[in-house]
Amino acid sequence: MNILIGISGGIAAYKVAGLVRMFVKDGHEVKTILTENAKQFITPVTLETLSRNRCYSKLFSNVRDIEHVSLAEWADAMVIAPATANTISKICNGACDDLLSNVVLALDKPCYIFPSMNTNMYTHPSVQENIAKLRQWGYMVYEPSEGELACGTSGKGRLPDTKLIYEIVIGETERAKIESPFLNKNVIITAGSTRSYIDPVRYIVNRSSGTMGVELVRHAWLRGAKVTLVCNSEVIERFPWVNYYADMIILVETTEDVLKNVVEIFGESDIYISAAALCDFGNNPAPKKIKKSQNDLTIQLKPAVDVFSELSKHKRKQIMIGFALETDDMEDHAIAKLKEKGMDMVVANTVEAIGVDSSRVAILDKRGIRKYIQKSGKRIVAGQILNEIEQIMLENDETVKNIPIRREEKETSH
Ligand SMILES: Cc1cc2nc3c(=O)[nH]c(=O)nc-3n(C[C@H](O)[C@H](O)[C@H](O)COP(=O)(O)O)c2cc1C
Questions:
Q1: Residue bearing the CA closest to ligand 1, atom 6
Q2: Are both 216 and 95 inside the same structural domain?
Q3: 358 beta partners
Q4: Which of 11, 98, 156 to mutate for ligand 1's pocket (most ligand atoms within 8 Å of CB)?
Q5: Are residues 258 and 229 in the same domain?
Q6: Which tens digits make up the pLDDT trace of 311-325?
Q7: What residue numbers bound the domain in which 88 lies?
Q8: What is the average pLDDT value for the chain, to the nearest integer?
Q9: Which residues are registered as beta bridge partners of 314?
Q10: Catalytic residue among 96, 111, 151, 279, which?
């Protein structure tokens, strides 16, 4: 994809270097435009080095190429980050006194605008009215995040995390191209680990990071689903961008929390994907902190509630997908799990996949179909898992049979 990044004169301009790097690393072509004031905050040399392309700035530097038009034509999408109050106002009023504002007006591709400024500037009626107008015209203008600002105050006005900007731009562009039976389906996805407390301060946990779960959330969103993510707070801290893809996030701590919360929304759901590595063993936690002693400590654990089997009892229309993480006889154990728990499909993987970004999986479904996915990034594996779920949906549901499925959507693995 050809991505044009416009940078205006806000303090957050320096952060855009990281964004340029992310796009380039994932194989996108990047060109940058700096306003004259932005040069106070980041240099063309930095941007040219990272983008491996020219950094543009002057309106009249290369008139033979009519750059404000040729750049607009070259771009598949444009990002303006940070967008200053001044640049927003110029776009809104059609003022074209520099290269950036001219390109924006000449552009007929998606344009993603990320305002960033002092909170009082951001909440000023003039800025708010301009933003509302831009949104009406079809520009995608995103809320700044809250927190400490460079001016020493705290509030709304920070440039969102560059990884989130990256996810928004790539996600929105891919989404526009995909047609899928997932459209408007309610999907519940669990991700990460749960805790099993042994006393008020200690717990047993596993190494699951939640990577597969959040990648499944992203893919389901790309295909138009409404996704509820059920996970612990560390998953969100690790992958804050997943907020953008999930319609609702339910934070849980224990395996019992997962059951209690999912059972309430399960009836309205169409698809349940259990990607979380739930603690299988529980304990009645000691009411007080267990004291250190010279003697060995024995902790008695009992099986935790089996969330999947419990939900299976409520199954009506839902397609239910489980995961099996095995150290040996992966497929045999996974098939046994599929039958025992009433799964429509099980994704089997080995312990090598836990806590890392890539995995090799076998997808086994109740019709006896087996599919093997070679070791790949979890973003790619998640897409393939959803492709298989789409097959089940097509077989189950007459109403979605006519929707073509796009198989070769472009995968990125950042
Ligand atoms: C140190 C400093 C930091 C600034 N940071 C911001 C900012 O974060 N957001 C903003 O809208 N304006 C900020 N400004 C004001 C803009 O630089 C100013 O409005 C300028 O006209 C923007 O020009 P441009 O939109 O053409 O880049 C800052 C000014 C200074 C001196």
A1: 10
A2: no
A3: 377
A4: 11
A5: yes
A6: 999 999 999 999 998
A7: 2-172
A8: 91
A9: none
A10: 151
